[in-house]
Amino acid sequence: MKEQIKKKLSAERPNVVFIIADDHRGESIGAFGNETVQTPVLDSLAASGTSCRNTHIFGGLTGAVCAPSRACVNTGISIFRAMIGKDMMNREHSSVIRPDVRLMPQTKREAGYQTHAVGKWHNDKASFARSFEGGDKLLFHGMSEHTKVPVHDYDPSGAYPKEQEYIERTFSTELFTDSAVKFIEDYREDRPFFLYVAYTAPHDPRTAPEPYASMYDKAAIPLPPNFMREHPFDTGDMMVRDEKLAIMPRDEGEIREHIADYYAMISHLDAQIGRVVEALKAKGIYDDTLIVYTADHGLAVGQHGLMGKQNVYEHSVRIPLIFRGPGVPENKQELALASNIDIFPTVAGLCNIDLPEETEGVSLCPIFAGKSDGVRGIVCSVYRDTQRMITDGRWKLIRYYRSPLTNTGTERIQLFDLLNDPWETQDLSAEPANAGEIERLASGLALWMQASSDILQNKPVIPVTS
């Protein structure tokens, strides 16, 4: 009888292994058409699940985009409402989640799941404490050297004082995987679990261990079609830390080296995720477990003459999103528009968990069930007070502003036809025939900014010309 109850619970509410990477852009997976990067484990998850190929991040208001992106994933709410701080451009606002907002793991915990975290939590410790009843090798920083990782053990008090932090020398991706595998192997409870595994790969320093460091021939790595030696105008954050990781103007040889190192980190990460998958199989719970793979944002690595994620081009705002497990169709690549605030509602739907009333994201479950071709007509992304973008899946409008705070940025727009120009190489905004598309997208962006309580909602979307 106990075993029957356990099977019934697993069918209604599957275990969840939620994996989130750092800096993994949406196209850098073999199954998604990238012919260079080697990702056999992610390819397998994609083949046995559903990949949401058109998922974009909501964005961020400081250079550290990872913290607000992770907040969007875990709250399903706009950063303008989920986070606190009188000055919405300061670093506190970029990381601290409002105390009255319920998070994905917190909601799981309240629904009876055992919630356990491993790895990076780039948001405030109070939101972590109310979300997880267990954890291991917890990183409360944005980044570190991969063989010098400052971590905490789980602290039931939720305080995590600095004096209890210690350094781990095992490579970060292996360190976090070791802890995730141990949790799965040791799990003995009848209730389902929610295991949150947050890696710091493939974020720099891109120092993958061998044999991965030598996996890619740096001289033979192809440059992307949108490689540029320098970006043609000031985006508003041209001297942020990420942009200083390579010389300016960009050198083709150096960018090839960066891409090779980036792919090496991804392939190593892929292999470590394989260990998590194998642990689930060895435990006999693989088919009863929902696996979710995503990332906090993408990365340029030489595209458009940029290196970082502090922009709203596709390479930086489009992320991988793979679901595999109960209730998820197999071998499906879905191109419907989605935002990272939709991830929480989708996980909740697949686990039969009620959402908090304040959730703004939309569940993708109707698409999985074949009841809908899409749940969004547009998606938008933000960066600081200098960039906004809107896309309907084909046409994409980027609006650039000049920041009064930093006196950087350019008052202008770009228009791309993503169907015919997925690498965003041809700005079509100056062509008179496209005036209607610009007007339509500009109107949609203005309405979205107002509905999202965007700090720039009262600024014109189309630049004022003299």
From TrEMBL:
Give the matching Gene3D superfamilies. Alkaline Phosphatase, subunit A
Family annotation (PANTHER family): ARYLSULFATASE FAMILY MEMBER, ARYLSULFATASE G
Superkingdom classification of source: Bacteria
Sulfatase N-terminal domain residues are 14-352
The coiled-coil segments of this chain are none
One Pfam family, please name it.
Answer: Sulfatase
Q: Which family does it belong to?
A: Belongs to the sulfatase family.
Task: Write the record's keywords in alphabetical order, separated by commas.
Answer: Calcium, Hydrolase, Metal-binding, Signal
Name the coenzymes or cofactors required: Ca(2+)
Instruction: Show the SUPFAM superfamilies listed in the entry.
Output: Alkaline phosphatase-like
Q: What is this protein called?
A: Sulfatase-like hydrolase/transferase
